[in-house]
Each structure stands twice: as structure tokens, then as C-alpha cells.
Design goal:
With 142 residues, this protein is mostly loops. Helix content is 13%, strand content 4%.
């Protein structure tokens, strides 16, 4: 009589299990051998959680919020003069668009420096060289 049950071999490639990749807690990625990634802790958010809002208990849910509470939760709309620019403090300079040589690449290049002018973004598909360029304002040019 034969046995119809399948008993997988432990080393079979079809057996799910340990893939051999160590977890961060098992590696020596730091020189401090007493370092435990679970000891680093978390940084709490700078805002209230939705769980701390009004209306979480059955009584609060039944009564509802007062008009004063609803008005206190409102946030003003952002006006156009407060619009965020593409430059942020300490961040990168704005990206240059397509770069075209002064002679538009038609004539022989006799200058030792590469000089080009920004002619705007052409569909946003810049090459690696153009994407690496940034704009230097005239007053900062050495």
C-alpha cells in the first residue's frame, strides 16, 4: 500500500522559509555593538491625533459638536500671495530648462568655456546634463 501524503524535504527549493537575508537587528552595520535599532524610539508628530478629537465617545457622538467647536477647527484658505515658490530656504536652486548655445550649435565652437542660455522647459524631458544644471542669478556670477 502506498502513502498518498507528501512530506517535503527540508532543503527543497519549494519549501518556504529562511531566504538567508539578515534583518537589520542581526547585522553589524554599526561600530557600536551595543546598538539596538529598537532602542532608537520614535518622534511624535507635531499635531493632534484624530483619536483625540471630539466625538470619539458614544456620548460625544450623540450630542455632536457645538458651533464654537466647529468654528475653532476651521482653517483659513491659503491666499495667492502666500503661494509656495519652487525655491525653499536652504534648498536647491530652480532647475534650468533646455540649454542652447549662443550660436545655437550651428558654427564651430571657438570659446574655451561652455556657454548656453536657458530657453525654457521643453515638455519636461531633460537629458541628464540639463537636469543637473541650476540657475545662478546675475548678481552671483563671479
Amino acid at each position: 500500500m502506498s502513502d498518498d501524503t507528501w512530506d517535503p524535504v527540508e532543503d527543497s527549493p519549494d519549501t518556504p522559509g529562511d531566504d538567508g537575508v539578515l534583518g537589520p537587528e542581526d547585522t553589524l552595520s554599526t561600530d557600536d555593538l551595543s546598538y539596538d535599532p529598537l532602542d532608537t524610539g520614535i518622534v511624535p508628530p507635531d499635531r493632534w491625533s484624530a483619536a483625540e478629537r471630539y466625538g470619539n465617545t458614544p456620548e460625544e457622538s450623540r450630542r455632536g459638536e457645538s458651533l464654537d467647536q466647529l468654528l475653532a477647527e476651521e482653517e483659513p484658505d491659503v491666499a495667492d500671495d502666500d503661494a509656495v515658490s519652487d525655491e525653499w530656504e536652504g534648498g536647491p536652486d530652480p532647475r534650468a530648462g533646455r540649454l542652447v548655445a549662443t550660436d545655437e550649435g550651428v558654427h564651430e565652437d571657438t570659446e574655451s568655456e561652455a556657454i548656453a542660455h536657458d530657453v525654457g522647459i521643453d515638455g519636461g524631458a531633460a537629458g541628464a546634463e540639463e537636469a543637473a544644471m541650476h540657475i545662478i542669478p546675475e548678481e552671483e556670477v563671479p
